[in-house]
Protein backbone atom coordinates (compact mmCIF):
# COMPACT_ATOMS: atom_id res chain seq x y z
CA UNK A 1 0.00 0.00 0.00
CA UNK A 2 1.26 3.46 -0.90
CA UNK A 3 0.57 6.85 0.66
CA UNK A 4 0.49 8.66 -2.69
CA UNK A 5 0.08 7.48 -6.28
CA UNK A 6 1.34 9.62 -9.16
CA UNK A 7 -0.72 8.96 -12.30
CA UNK A 8 0.95 9.96 -15.56
CA UNK A 9 1.17 9.00 -19.23
CA UNK A 10 4.69 10.41 -19.55
CA UNK A 11 7.11 7.66 -20.54
CA UNK A 12 10.07 9.85 -19.59
CA UNK A 13 8.72 10.41 -16.08
CA UNK A 14 7.88 6.73 -15.53
CA UNK A 15 11.32 5.73 -16.80
CA UNK A 16 13.11 8.29 -14.64
CA UNK A 17 11.25 7.22 -11.51
CA UNK A 18 11.95 3.52 -12.21
CA UNK A 19 15.66 4.26 -12.71
CA UNK A 20 15.87 6.78 -9.84
CA UNK A 21 17.64 9.06 -12.28
CA UNK A 22 16.31 11.79 -14.49
CA UNK A 23 16.22 10.77 -18.15
CA UNK A 24 18.60 12.86 -20.30
CA UNK A 25 16.70 15.27 -22.52
CA UNK A 26 13.63 15.37 -20.29
CA UNK A 27 11.42 18.42 -20.79
CA UNK A 28 10.82 20.97 -18.06
CA UNK A 29 7.52 19.52 -16.87
CA UNK A 30 9.05 16.07 -16.52
CA UNK A 31 11.97 17.48 -14.52
CA UNK A 32 9.58 19.32 -12.19
CA UNK A 33 7.39 16.24 -11.65
CA UNK A 34 10.39 13.99 -11.07
CA UNK A 35 11.74 16.41 -8.47
CA UNK A 36 8.33 16.56 -6.78
CA UNK A 37 8.07 12.76 -6.71
CA UNK A 38 11.58 12.48 -5.30
CA UNK A 39 11.12 15.09 -2.59
CA UNK A 40 7.81 13.56 -1.44
CA UNK A 41 9.39 10.11 -1.38
CA UNK A 42 11.52 11.18 1.60
CA UNK A 43 8.49 11.30 3.91
CA UNK A 44 5.89 9.23 2.07
CA UNK A 45 5.63 5.95 0.20
CA UNK A 46 4.91 6.76 -3.44
CA UNK A 47 3.93 4.66 -6.44
CA UNK A 48 3.92 5.51 -10.14
CA UNK A 49 2.21 2.81 -12.24
CA UNK A 50 3.45 2.53 -15.81
CA UNK A 51 0.19 1.37 -17.39
CA UNK A 52 -0.81 4.80 -18.74
CA UNK A 53 2.53 5.28 -20.52
CA UNK A 54 1.84 2.22 -22.70
CA UNK A 55 -1.54 3.41 -24.00
CA UNK A 56 -1.78 5.26 -27.30
CA UNK A 57 -3.43 8.69 -27.37
CA UNK A 58 -6.44 7.32 -29.24
CA UNK A 59 -7.19 4.42 -26.89
CA UNK A 60 -10.26 6.05 -25.33
CA UNK A 61 -11.73 2.87 -23.83
CA UNK A 62 -8.48 1.83 -22.14
CA UNK A 63 -7.98 5.27 -20.59
CA UNK A 64 -11.59 5.35 -19.45
CA UNK A 65 -11.23 1.96 -17.78
CA UNK A 66 -7.86 2.50 -16.12
CA UNK A 67 -8.54 6.04 -14.87
CA UNK A 68 -11.78 4.99 -13.19
CA UNK A 69 -10.52 1.82 -11.52
CA UNK A 70 -8.08 1.87 -8.64
CA UNK A 71 -5.46 -0.86 -8.49
CA UNK A 72 -3.22 0.75 -5.87
CA UNK A 73 -4.56 1.26 -2.37
CA UNK A 74 -3.73 4.75 -1.13
CA UNK A 75 -5.44 7.90 0.07
CA UNK A 76 -4.07 10.53 -2.28
CA UNK A 77 -3.53 10.68 -6.04
CA UNK A 78 -1.66 13.26 -8.11
CA UNK A 79 -2.93 13.34 -11.70
CA UNK A 80 -1.43 14.21 -15.03
CA UNK A 81 -4.04 16.76 -16.31
CA UNK A 82 -4.36 14.71 -19.52
CA UNK A 83 -5.96 11.88 -17.56
CA UNK A 84 -8.59 14.08 -15.95
CA UNK A 85 -10.68 14.20 -19.11
CA UNK A 86 -11.41 10.48 -18.68
CA UNK A 87 -12.29 10.74 -15.01
CA UNK A 88 -15.94 9.93 -14.25
CA UNK A 89 -15.95 9.89 -10.45
CA UNK A 90 -13.80 10.39 -7.37
CA UNK A 91 -11.51 7.42 -6.91
CA UNK A 92 -9.25 8.48 -4.02
CA UNK A 93 -9.89 10.27 -0.73
CA UNK A 94 -7.82 13.24 -1.93
CA UNK A 95 -7.08 14.13 -5.55
CA UNK A 96 -4.61 16.70 -6.88
CA UNK A 97 -3.12 17.62 -10.25
CA UNK A 98 -0.02 19.48 -11.43
CA UNK A 99 -0.52 21.85 -14.38
CA UNK A 100 2.54 23.34 -16.11
CA UNK A 101 0.93 24.99 -19.10
CA UNK A 102 -1.61 24.35 -21.83
CA UNK A 103 -0.59 24.02 -25.47
CA UNK A 104 -3.27 26.19 -27.04
CA UNK A 105 -1.83 25.51 -30.51
CA UNK A 106 -3.35 22.03 -30.30
CA UNK A 107 -6.76 23.53 -29.65
CA UNK A 108 -6.89 25.79 -32.69
CA UNK A 109 -7.49 23.31 -35.53
CA UNK A 110 -9.30 20.55 -33.67
CA UNK A 111 -12.76 20.37 -32.13
CA UNK A 112 -11.63 17.11 -30.52
CA UNK A 113 -8.95 18.86 -28.49
CA UNK A 114 -11.29 21.72 -27.56
CA UNK A 115 -13.79 19.25 -26.12
CA UNK A 116 -10.99 17.36 -24.40
CA UNK A 117 -9.61 20.60 -22.91
CA UNK A 118 -12.99 21.78 -21.63
CA UNK A 119 -13.60 18.39 -20.02
CA UNK A 120 -10.23 18.65 -18.30
CA UNK A 121 -11.08 22.08 -16.88
CA UNK A 122 -14.47 20.85 -15.72
CA UNK A 123 -12.92 17.90 -13.88
CA UNK A 124 -10.37 20.19 -12.21
CA UNK A 125 -13.20 21.91 -10.33
CA UNK A 126 -13.82 18.73 -8.33
CA UNK A 127 -10.18 18.23 -7.32
CA UNK A 128 -8.92 19.12 -3.87
CA UNK A 129 -6.04 21.16 -5.31
CA UNK A 130 -4.30 22.02 -8.57
CA UNK A 131 -0.62 22.95 -8.40
CA UNK A 132 0.55 25.52 -10.94
CA UNK A 133 4.09 26.75 -11.57
CA UNK A 134 3.37 30.47 -11.97
CA UNK A 135 0.82 33.13 -11.14
CA UNK A 136 -0.14 33.35 -14.82
CA UNK A 137 -1.63 29.86 -14.78
CA UNK A 138 -3.09 30.31 -11.33
CA UNK A 139 -4.97 33.36 -12.57
CA UNK A 140 -5.95 31.60 -15.79
CA UNK A 141 -7.58 28.74 -13.86
CA UNK A 142 -9.30 31.19 -11.54
CA UNK A 143 -10.72 33.00 -14.57
CA UNK A 144 -12.27 29.65 -15.58
CA UNK A 145 -13.93 29.22 -12.20
CA UNK A 146 -11.26 26.98 -10.62
CA UNK A 147 -10.17 28.42 -7.28
CA UNK A 148 -8.48 25.53 -5.44
CA UNK A 149 -5.10 26.50 -6.91
CA UNK A 150 -1.67 26.45 -5.25
CA UNK A 151 1.55 27.77 -6.83
CA UNK A 152 4.90 26.05 -6.34
CA UNK A 153 7.68 27.51 -8.47
CA UNK A 154 10.29 25.58 -10.42
CA UNK A 155 13.29 24.99 -8.17
CA UNK A 156 16.87 23.90 -8.63
CA UNK A 157 19.86 22.41 -6.87
CA UNK A 158 22.02 25.55 -6.77
CA UNK A 159 25.27 23.63 -6.33
CA UNK A 160 24.87 22.16 -9.82
CA UNK A 161 25.29 25.63 -11.32
CA UNK A 162 28.68 26.33 -9.76
CA UNK A 163 30.95 25.89 -12.80
CA UNK A 164 34.69 25.62 -12.23
CA UNK A 165 37.15 27.52 -14.41
CA UNK A 166 38.59 24.19 -15.56
CA UNK A 167 35.20 22.84 -16.68
CA UNK A 168 34.43 26.09 -18.47
CA UNK A 169 37.78 26.07 -20.24
CA UNK A 170 37.35 22.43 -21.30
CA UNK A 171 33.85 23.09 -22.63
CA UNK A 172 34.92 26.10 -24.71
CA UNK A 173 37.84 24.19 -26.22
CA UNK A 174 35.89 20.98 -26.83
CA UNK A 175 33.38 22.86 -28.98
CA UNK A 176 35.97 25.18 -30.51
CA UNK A 177 34.25 28.36 -29.33
CA UNK A 178 35.86 31.78 -29.57
CA UNK A 179 36.04 33.20 -26.05
CA UNK A 180 36.68 36.67 -27.51
CA UNK A 181 33.40 36.71 -29.44
CA UNK A 182 30.01 36.92 -27.61
CA UNK A 183 28.27 33.58 -27.19
CA UNK A 184 24.49 33.83 -27.37
CA UNK A 185 22.40 30.78 -26.47
CA UNK A 186 19.05 30.93 -28.27
CA UNK A 187 17.39 27.95 -26.59
CA UNK A 188 16.08 24.55 -27.60
CA UNK A 189 16.07 23.58 -31.27
CA UNK A 190 12.31 23.91 -31.52
CA UNK A 191 10.34 26.23 -33.81
CA UNK A 192 7.89 26.99 -30.99
CA UNK A 193 10.83 28.24 -28.92
CA UNK A 194 11.40 30.93 -31.54
CA UNK A 195 14.87 29.94 -32.72
CA UNK A 196 14.25 30.67 -36.42
CA UNK A 197 13.01 34.20 -35.74
CA UNK A 198 15.87 34.80 -33.30
CA UNK A 199 18.37 33.68 -35.93
CA UNK A 200 16.83 35.97 -38.55
CA UNK A 201 16.98 38.87 -36.11
CA UNK A 202 20.61 38.32 -35.06
CA UNK A 203 22.26 36.70 -38.10
CA UNK A 204 24.12 39.88 -39.08
CA UNK A 205 25.75 40.36 -35.68
CA UNK A 206 29.33 39.27 -34.99
CA UNK A 207 28.31 36.71 -32.37
CA UNK A 208 28.23 32.93 -31.90
CA UNK A 209 24.65 31.62 -31.91
CA UNK A 210 24.03 28.25 -30.26
CA UNK A 211 20.93 26.08 -29.84
CA UNK A 212 20.63 22.70 -28.12
CA UNK A 213 18.54 19.56 -28.16
CA UNK A 214 18.45 16.18 -29.91
CA UNK A 215 20.24 16.36 -33.25
CA UNK A 216 17.23 14.66 -34.84
CA UNK A 217 15.37 17.95 -34.34
CA UNK A 218 16.87 19.41 -37.48
CA UNK A 219 16.14 23.08 -38.07
CA UNK A 220 17.57 24.50 -41.26
CA UNK A 221 19.45 27.52 -39.95
CA UNK A 222 23.26 27.96 -39.81
CA UNK A 223 23.52 27.89 -36.03
CA UNK A 224 25.72 25.68 -33.84
CA UNK A 225 23.50 22.80 -32.70
CA UNK A 226 24.69 20.64 -29.80
CA UNK A 227 23.14 17.78 -27.84
CA UNK A 228 24.71 18.29 -24.43
CA UNK A 229 24.86 16.47 -21.14
CA UNK A 230 23.41 18.33 -18.16
CA UNK A 231 26.90 19.31 -17.03
CA UNK A 232 27.85 20.63 -20.48
CA UNK A 233 24.54 22.45 -20.79
CA UNK A 234 25.26 24.32 -17.56
CA UNK A 235 28.75 25.14 -18.87
CA UNK A 236 27.11 26.59 -21.99
CA UNK A 237 24.85 28.81 -19.89
CA UNK A 238 27.87 29.99 -17.89
CA UNK A 239 29.96 30.61 -21.03
CA UNK A 240 27.19 32.61 -22.70
CA UNK A 241 27.22 36.40 -22.72
CA UNK A 242 23.46 36.38 -23.07
CA UNK A 243 20.59 33.89 -23.23
CA UNK A 244 17.59 34.47 -25.50
CA UNK A 245 14.23 32.81 -24.68
CA UNK A 246 11.89 34.15 -27.37
CA UNK A 247 9.34 31.36 -26.99
CA UNK A 248 6.12 31.58 -29.01
CA UNK A 249 4.25 29.09 -26.87
CA UNK A 250 2.54 30.19 -23.66
CA UNK A 251 5.11 29.08 -21.11
CA UNK A 252 4.47 27.64 -17.69
CA UNK A 253 7.66 29.26 -16.37
CA UNK A 254 10.92 28.91 -18.31
CA UNK A 255 13.55 26.66 -16.82
CA UNK A 256 16.20 27.76 -19.33
CA UNK A 257 15.83 31.38 -18.26
CA UNK A 258 15.88 30.47 -14.56
CA UNK A 259 18.96 28.26 -14.97
CA UNK A 260 20.72 31.03 -16.88
CA UNK A 261 20.16 33.39 -13.96
CA UNK A 262 21.66 30.82 -11.58
CA UNK A 263 24.75 30.95 -13.82
CA UNK A 264 24.70 34.77 -13.60
CA UNK A 265 23.93 35.08 -17.31
CA UNK A 266 21.40 37.79 -18.30
CA UNK A 267 18.24 36.91 -20.23
CA UNK A 268 16.14 38.54 -22.92
CA UNK A 269 12.81 36.77 -23.40
CA UNK A 270 9.40 37.10 -24.99
CA UNK A 271 7.67 36.95 -21.60
CA UNK A 272 4.89 34.62 -22.74
CA UNK A 273 2.80 33.01 -20.01
CA UNK A 274 4.59 32.48 -16.72
CA UNK A 275 7.91 33.62 -18.19
CA UNK A 276 6.77 37.23 -17.78
CA UNK A 277 6.60 36.82 -14.00
CA UNK A 278 10.06 35.25 -13.97
CA UNK A 279 11.69 37.98 -16.10
CA UNK A 280 9.89 40.83 -14.34
CA UNK A 281 10.69 39.71 -10.80
CA UNK A 282 14.31 38.99 -11.73
CA UNK A 283 14.80 42.35 -13.45
CA UNK A 284 15.55 40.92 -16.90
CA UNK A 285 14.52 42.23 -20.33
CA UNK A 286 11.20 41.43 -22.00
CA UNK A 287 11.10 41.76 -25.80
CA UNK A 288 7.67 41.28 -27.37
CA UNK A 289 8.74 42.31 -30.88
CA UNK A 290 11.42 40.48 -32.87
CA UNK A 291 12.09 43.71 -34.77
CA UNK A 292 13.51 45.16 -31.53
CA UNK A 293 15.67 42.16 -30.67
CA UNK A 294 18.79 43.06 -32.65
CA UNK A 295 18.91 46.54 -31.13
CA UNK A 296 18.45 45.20 -27.61
CA UNK A 297 21.16 42.55 -28.03
CA UNK A 298 23.63 44.94 -29.69
CA UNK A 299 23.19 47.52 -26.95
CA UNK A 300 23.48 44.99 -24.15
CA UNK A 301 26.55 43.05 -25.27
CA UNK A 302 28.44 46.33 -25.52
CA UNK A 303 27.51 47.48 -22.02
CA UNK A 304 29.43 45.48 -19.40
CA UNK A 305 28.01 47.47 -16.50
CA UNK A 306 24.44 46.69 -17.49
CA UNK A 307 25.27 43.04 -18.14
CA UNK A 308 26.72 42.76 -14.64
CA UNK A 309 23.73 44.53 -13.11
CA UNK A 310 21.28 42.20 -14.85
CA UNK A 311 23.36 39.19 -13.80
CA UNK A 312 23.38 40.25 -10.14
CA UNK A 313 19.66 41.04 -10.03
CA UNK A 314 18.80 37.81 -11.78
CA UNK A 315 20.89 35.65 -9.47
CA UNK A 316 19.51 37.35 -6.34
CA UNK A 317 16.01 36.32 -7.46
CA UNK A 318 16.74 32.86 -8.86
CA UNK A 319 18.71 31.65 -5.83
CA UNK A 320 15.60 31.75 -3.63
CA UNK A 321 14.06 28.75 -5.39
CA UNK A 322 16.24 25.90 -4.25
CA UNK A 323 15.32 22.34 -3.34
CA UNK A 324 14.70 23.28 0.31
CA UNK A 325 12.00 25.69 -0.83
CA UNK A 326 10.58 23.04 -3.18
CA UNK A 327 10.53 20.33 -0.52
CA UNK A 328 8.94 22.59 2.09
CA UNK A 329 6.22 23.73 -0.31
CA UNK A 330 5.24 20.27 -1.51
CA UNK A 331 5.37 18.64 1.91
CA UNK A 332 3.34 21.46 3.46
CA UNK A 333 0.71 21.01 0.77
CA UNK A 334 0.45 17.23 1.22
CA UNK A 335 0.26 17.63 4.99
CA UNK A 336 -3.05 19.43 4.53
CA UNK A 337 -4.56 16.18 3.26
CA UNK A 338 -2.79 13.21 4.82
List keywords for this structure.
six-stranded parallel beta sheet, 14% strand, alpha/beta, 2 domains, Rossmann fold, 12 strands, 338 residues
Report the biggest beta sheet as strand number plus sense, adding barrel if it closes. Answer: 6 strands, parallel
What pattern of helices and strands is seen along the backbone? Answer: EHHEHEHEHEHEHEHEEHEHEHEHHH
> Nearest-angstrom radius of gyration?
21 Å
What is the CATH architecture assignment of the largest domain? 3-Layer(aba) Sandwich
Question: What fraction strand?
Answer: 5-15%
Please write the CATH class name of the largest domain. Answer: Alpha Beta
Mean pLDDT across every amino acid position: 94
What is the spatial order of strands in the main beta sheet? 2-1-3-4-5-6
Total individual domains: 2
- CATH topology call of the largest domain: Rossmann fold
Give me the count of strands: 12
Low-confidence stretches: none
Q: Rough shape?
A: globular
Describe the protein's architecture and organization:
By secondary structure, the protein is of the alpha/beta class. It has 2 domains: 4-155 and 322-335, Rossmann fold (3-Layer(aba) Sandwich); 158-318, Rossmann fold (3-Layer(aba) Sandwich), CATH 3.40.50.2000. Helix content is 41%, strand content 14%. The chain has 14 helices and 12 strands. The protein has helices at 11-19, 28-40, 60-67, 81-84, 111-124, 135-143, 165-174, 195-202, 230-239, 255-262, 275-281, 293-301, 304-318, 323-335; strands at residues 4-7, 46-47, 76-79, 94-99, 129-132, 149-151, 183-188, 208-212, 224-226, 242-245, 267-269, 285-286. A 6-stranded parallel beta sheet has the order 2-1-3-4-5-6, with helices on both faces. The chain has a 6-stranded parallel beta sheet with strand order 9-8-7-10-11-12, with helices on both faces. Helix 8 links the parallel strand 7 and strand 8 (208-212). Helix 1 packs parallel to helix 2, helix 7 packs across helix 9 and helix 10 (255-262) crosses helix 13 (304-318).
Amino acid sequence: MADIVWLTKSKDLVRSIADSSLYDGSKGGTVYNYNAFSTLSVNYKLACPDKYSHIGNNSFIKYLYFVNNRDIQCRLAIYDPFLLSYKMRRIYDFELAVLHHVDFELLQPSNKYKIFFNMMLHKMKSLDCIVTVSQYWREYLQSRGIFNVYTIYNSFNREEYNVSDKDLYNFIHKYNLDKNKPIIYIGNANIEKGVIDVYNSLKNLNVQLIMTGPLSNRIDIPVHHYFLSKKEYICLLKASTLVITMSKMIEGWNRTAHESLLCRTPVIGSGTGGMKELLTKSGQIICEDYLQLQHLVTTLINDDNRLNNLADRGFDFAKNYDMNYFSNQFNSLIEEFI
